[in-house]
Amino acid sequence: MSASDIYVRHFQKFGHNDVAYRLLLQDTYPSWGYSIKYNATTIWERWDGWTKEKGFQDPGMNSFNHYSLGSVGRWLYESVAGIASDTENLGFKKNCNKSAHSTELNYVRAQFESIHGLIKSEWKLKDKDFELKYEL
What we know:
The protein has helices at 3-13, 17-25, 32-37, 72-81; strands at 50-51, 55-56, 83-85, 95-97, 107-114, 117-126, 129-135. The chain is α+β, with helices and mostly antiparallel strands and 136 residues long. It has one domain. It has a three-stranded antiparallel beta sheet, with helices on one face. It has a two-stranded antiparallel sheet with strand order 1-2. Helix 1 (3-13) packs antiparallel against helix 2 (17-25).
């Protein structure tokens, strides 16, 4: 599990999805957008794997090709889109929507092909109205 994955799960567990959304949407250090801003093509293991000010960290403790969807990808599906497997019914046999929408985004659409069929989730935020469409 990467450091960024640990941070996001911690923020979510204690009700700080706003911090996780900032890490997703900003392009300043630290964030996922920071690595993209500086042309990263993979997910870094550590926020400070490379910074403009300090350059590269110790290469013996730094992966620039960490599992690409394990960190932010899982959080996007589970928390942003709300496609999350019930922990007691693995394989998406039962699905529970755990969407933690934010005013930072006004529209999200995702789908996941599980072994039990296609799951679709879409939500919109317009003014103060929240609209959710969810298909199993």
